[in-house]
């Protein structure tokens, strides 16, 4: 995973379209992630970001278009995609709640170990060796995200921020070449967000490309080498943080376009009066101004 | 009384109990009551031998009196622990009140139940002899004394639950620990053998036995002894397991009676099958309502190659190892055939489809009789006159003398079945603690996330299904020989006679999902209780349902709880957290950047 040069593409999605009946959730999206890159995917709620993620990871089979990882077209099955080298986290945390922290990461090792039922029943030396190796690797990852002291806790008992981190560790356990993070900082406070930022940089430094969906713009623009904006299923713009930040269409998609006729002076004055009035006056006038 | 005062027996101003008495008086009352109860069991309780167990003798306790005697001794011992007597501290490490009150309650329950049963059975209080009066008075005294002990809390629950802090056990040498495990196993064997040995007509005795076992075990649990014992077990896992199997193997020698050996072998068959089902339901989370069909496939396969003259292949007689493999292979194939199309479904849909496939097996077997279908299974008549097994010249049908003990036919099969149970336990524990077992649990927890972690859900589920099926088939091969014949009737979804899918599922859920001991205990209880409580007759299914409802209300994780499950259902108590680290105030400062 570290052998690839800085320019070779890890993920190439071309013309990915996902239709649910008559609804087109994702329309002909092209996206490339190069090795050693952190790419952000932003867009208002319902823009199709998670659907696009699901198309990439095989949870959905795209209606049209193809997704390839390091030059080979990905099979349309989630476990085969993971096996190929793409790991993901989920927007709403999906840990194995009643397994311990260590076991969660061990499950992530599944694709990189081969021991089947027979070797589990016979318990030969190969089984023991593989099991110890898995445990060591898992503990390494827990060390990396800073949860090794909680290895024996049940995942459900971790605080929210640590659950998010554990999900990342679980994804990293499959030794991916590309990590897809679906809103990794949702529900986090500023310190936690900053810690996650550090974590993502550290992951990138290990040679793993990262594609991240996020609503926190400061987080995205700090982190990403490139950002793509998805609106109503279509890719609106792609480029460096500055380009996307300055793009009027992106701002419009998030904040809405101004009216054809901009609000007149009298309306502005009215609003200002109401606002200043409500600050000083009693609650009854506040109610009045609210109307 | 919200203070959580640790009630040490010597504190004079300790909080008082429900009944206002000085603590020393309360202690004396409990001890006196216990001694009275013990003494009463050496007296006659009733005048006629008509009451089960014959309680008419002076000088020798019998039937329910033995149970009262045990309860009395337990109460006395726990009463003495309140005096801080050296050498008895291990019985009640926390010096808690709950074990004393529960032990007293067990003596009270047994004696009062007996007295009431005598009065009801024989028609009137006139049938009670002086001994019974002594018993009911002294057990009441003991209970009142226990209630006068310092209150462990302000709710009723505090009287029957384990105190929060139990001092850690002092270290004893490893050989002593093993000795404790051995002694406890022997005790369990004696208790179990006594219960099995209760005459089926003496339901009164069995109810008394249940009262004593439930309340007595509860007392030991609240004293913290169960926790200590399971810690010992965990330290000497292999030893404890072998002791348990040794105890089970000794059962036919302790309880040398063919009827009870038959009971034992049937319990082992359903327990083994329930353990196989536990892989599918408990570990992988697939609700299989047609599981008993796999037992049937194994039994029929073994019957067909057994050399029975009613078998379609009456000339063929496989040696047992080959018959066993045939049964397993047939169940495996059937499991894969059913699993492959159905395992694409999830949740309720899977349950309904497996229910349907289970019924398909029974109906097919019913119809493969030569008139409504090809002749394979001899239809509803089934395959009878299955010859007894013979392995290395050891005929399972005849009796054998081991020393002074004669081992009969069912005891032979009991020992064989025990080996098979051991194999299944080994398969279960090894499979559960491995890469494949983790992927099963991951699928149970969240199938989508599991597949996204690279687990081939369908394949892994199919392995669980096939493994469960072949283990049931294995048990089926023995059960065909034990029962002399196979017929389609028992392999149904629900019925009043044990091997049926609902029964097996209940054994797993009742005992505890995902554990080894759970399904075995569950199957034992579910098999033994209807057998011994024969007076229930047509209300058996009703009682069964009622028991399930009560258990699900108060202990949804099953009697032997998996650590995970326990946490799932009793969220607030969080018994698992090893040593709680300080609340994380510096969540942001992690090693992430390192």
UniProtKB/TrEMBL annotation, chain B:
InterPro entries: ABC_transp_permease, LivM-like. Residues 571-594 are annotated as: Disordered. It holds the Pfam family BPD_transp_2. It is found in: Cell membrane. Keywords: Cell membrane, Membrane, Transmembrane, Transmembrane helix. The chain crosses the membrane at residues 25-45, 57-80, 100-120, 132-151, 172-194, 206-226, 260-281, 288-306, 318-340, 410-429, 462-482, 502-527. It is a multi-pass membrane protein. The keyword Transcription does not apply. This is Branched-chain amino acid ABC transporter permease. It comes from Streptomyces spinosisporus.
